[in-house]
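Dear colleague,

Thank you for sharing your sequence with our group. We've completed the structure prediction you requested, and as agreed, I am returning the results in plain text so they can be pasted directly into your records. Please verify that the sequence below matches your submission; if there's any discrepancy, let me know and we will rerun it promptly.
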Amino acid sequence: MVKIYTKGGDLGETSLLNGTRVSKSHDRVEAYGTMDELNAFIGALRDHLEIDHYRKVLLRIQENLFTAEALVAADPEKKAEGLPELDEEEILLLEKEIDIMTSELPVLKNFILPGGDPHVSRCHVARTVCRRAERAVIRLQRDSSVSPVTVRYLNRLSDYLFVLARRLGKEFNAEEITWPRKK
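Please find the predicted structure tokens below.
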């Protein structure tokens, strides 16, 4: 078998934050890579949104996601110096925002189809990527140490993105199409 090496090493490998080499298909790489994808989708949502409050919250979420990514990208067997912590307070912020938005929305009695407005659609794309990131982190957690705050944060973040989609739908007068549709 021929191995192709680059300056960084084997093309099928990457380095974790504290230098450990792992396969690019490693559960840890999948987890932080999916969180990075989520962060990019949230950035796209923030870039298209003109409501300052939500832009500020989304920026804070992006910062928290970078923290979570760094924590997941570090080899738990090696000490990582200078890594920030993801604080439980950030989960409480999401819950507070969810409560405020929910109080302004009609009670949901059916599933809703994603869409109706580009902002709403971006929220739903981010929400589904967030759920995938959460599953990836939970998979990683089976065999390795992962902060439980990271898992809880991703769980609450997907709920925040769902409620934000509904709130923005109301803001932009987007029709909420329920499922199953009444004929």
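Summary note from our side: The chain has a mean pLDDT of 88.

Kind regards,
the structure core
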